[in-house]
Write a structure and sequence with these properties.
33% strand; 2 helices; Alpha-Beta Plaits
Length: 94
Amino acid sequence: MPNERNGFGPRFYEIKIKGHLEERWAEWFEEMTFTHEKDGTTTLYGPLPDQTALHSILRKIRDLNLQLISVKQVKLDAEDETKTSSNGGVRIDD
């Protein structure tokens, strides 16, 4: 059965876009959490079950006419778990 230990299952991604995404879009980005960064960007972070889900998020970014800066697959550690939530959310860094 696929799971994170054997290389299958959800992967965690960090997607950076230009500008601060409004809170009303939180539900649209599924279980991704987004953070308003001090540099004027927004970082979307969270698990995506497969490449289809990743491409769905990227299509939404395109459909909103947002400028994509970067997409990174990241390794989950204990600190990262605090960034995720079961229903998405917004975190604003000061």
